[in-house]
Design brief:
Helix content: 10-25%
Number of helices: 1
Strand order of the largest sheet: 1-2-3-4-5-6-7-9
Order of helices and strands: HEEEEEEEEE
Distance between the termini: 20 Å
């Protein structure tokens, strides 16, 4: 399970590395994702295996454990079943979609600098205490 999450992270990094970063403005969902505060039920650290955390959501920031960085959240939407979180790294804008199923979150895909990348497999994560 953890291997699948790591593979998705590696694929996303490769996509970002190959993207054109000319600074041209593109159309995104920033108008749709005007809120920047993470819904309270998602605040915390999430992982398939809590010994190897994947992501931590705070009120206005996201920490990605694969790259060891924390980024300000630029947009958040939650429709009752999907959590969409937008943030910008040095490699460009990212918008990741997580399926919320009961007490679990699964990364189902994202847009990495404008390139849509589905998750290889949606691995359920739980909140780690």
């Amino acid at each position: 399970m953890i291997r699948r999450v790591l593979i998705l992270t590696a694929v996303a990094a490769l996509v970002l590395a190959g993207c054109n970063r000319t600074g041209e403005g593109g159309q995104g969902s920033s108008a749709e994702a005007a809120a920047t505060e993470t819904p309270e039920q998602f605040i915390g650290t999430w992982a398939a295996d809590c010994q190897r955390p994947f992501v931590r959501f705070a009120e206005h920031e996201i920490q990605i454990f694969a790259d060891g960085q924390t980024y300000p959240i630029t947009g958040v939407t939650y429709d009752g079943s999907s959590l969409v979180v937008a943030y910008t790294t040095g490699n460009g804008p990212i918008e990741e979609t997580f399926a919320a199923q009961g007490e679990n979150l699964s990364l189902v895909g994202g847009a990495y600098d404008g390139v849509d990348v589905p998750a290889a497999e949606a691995t359920p994560m739980q909140r780690c205490e």
